[in-house]
Design brief:
By secondary structure, the chain is mainly alpha-helical. The chain contains 4 helices and no strands. The longest helix has 23 residues. The radius of gyration is 17 Å and the shape is globular. The protein starts with a helix and ends in a 19-residue tail after the last helix. The mean pLDDT is about 80.
């Protein structure tokens, strides 16, 4: 879903890059305009499920698991923004990358707080869970 939302429309993909359009400094272009705020909130909510649904896959809550999901979300976010460098209608922004990482962190923290890792009656040594 994230890849689809952040790379559409595919017809705008070009064989040349638009590095001059990249907004390298986070929040430099952010404003209190309705569109800017919507974009910030959309990025946050788009990635929150990544953190929320990753944490229960781990056997135990740990700093390593938290950092791993943050790193994975950051890499996915950078990859989708890199795709946008080759699109005429998309503007790659480090604000988006940062909001995606924050959204993932919020989701992971929500999973930890709400005890998404606790599965009543489940075996803590279940091999179906990841060692995070």
């Amino acid at each position: 879903l994230i890849v689809l939302v952040t790379t559409m429309p595919w017809s705008n993909f070009q064989g040349h890059s638009h590095w001059s359009f990249v907004r390298w400094i986070p929040f430099q272009d952010a404003s209190l305009k309705r569109r800017s705020l919507f974009d910030l909130v959309l990025n946050l909510f788009l990635y929150a499920p990544v953190g929320y649904f990753y944490m229960p896959l781990c056997r135990a809550v740990s700093t390593a698991a938290f950092l791993r999901v943050i790193l994975m979300a950051g890499l996915l976010s950078v990859a989708t923004e890199l795709f946008q460098v080759f699109s005429h209608n998309r503007i790659p922004s480090m604000t988006d990358v940062l909001m995606n990482i924050i959204g993932t962190a919020v989701g992971a923290i929500a999973a930890i707080i709400w005890g998404a890792n606790e599965k009543p009656g489940s075996d803590p040594h279940n091999s179906g869970l990841l060692r995070c």
